[in-house]
Amino acid sequence: MKKLLAVVTLVASLGLLATAADVTLRGKVGDSMCGAKNTSVACVSKCLKMGDSAVLVSRDKVYKVSNPDELKAFAGQAVVVKGSLDGDTLTVSSVKALHARKHKTS
Predict the structure, then answer these.
(1) What pLDDT, in 10s, does the model give residues 16-74?
(2) pTM metric for this prediction
(3) 78 within 8 A of 26, measured Cβ to Cβ
(4) In the prediction, which pLDDT does 7 show?
(5) Is the pLDDT of residue 11 over 70?
(6) d(CA 28, CA 48)
(7) DSSP state, 20?
(8) Cβ pair 66, 90 in contact under 8 A
(9) In terms of Cα–Cα distance, which of 61, 53, 50 is closest to 27?
(10) Sequence-ordered list of residues with C-beta below 8 angstroms from that of 34, at least 6 positions apart, any chain
(11) pLDDT in tens, 69-89
């Protein structure tokens, strides 16, 4: 019985260690309906207004967001997001828009 309890405790503690990881991801803010199919500002804004949740699309992978209101102001924009990742679910701690580089004119 003691061995069983020890094994259960060990497995449970290892599960807690592997649940969430701090990450920094670059991607575009999309919506839960279209995902990676369409991340245009117009489409994402419309879908978010209709009640879909904000998601992060990074390298053709769609991350669910546990606190999607953090991304709504960045609909369809390229962003850098810091947060914690648990499986495919991202909890956003900070987000900032990526700005297009300005080209020098001759």
Answers:
(1) 445 689 999 999 999 999 999 999 999 999 999 999 999 999 998 999 999 999 999 99
(2) 0.75
(3) yes
(4) 53
(5) no
(6) 14
(7) -
(8) yes
(9) 61
(10) 43, 44, 47
(11) 999 999 999 999 999 999 999
Helix (H) or strand (E) holding 45: helix 41-49
Instruction: Enter the tokens of residue 68.
Output: 């999607």
Confidence of residue 2 (pLDDT cuts 50, 70, 90): low
Place of tokens 């369409």: 38
Cα separations (Å) of 28 from 6, 22, 92? Answer: 45, 19, 14
Q: Which helix (DSSP H) or strand (DSSP E) does residue 2 occupy?
A: helix 2-17
Which candidate, 17, 28, 24, places its Cα nearest to that of 93?
24
Kindly list the structural domains of the chain, giving each domain's residue range(s) and its CATH number in brackets, ordered by start: 21-97 (2.40.50)
Q: In this structure, what token pair is assigned to residue 16?
A: 């807690």
DSSP strands (E only) in the chain? 21-31, 54-58, 61-65, 78-86, 89-97
Q: Residue 71 is encoded by which pair of tokens? A: 């991304």
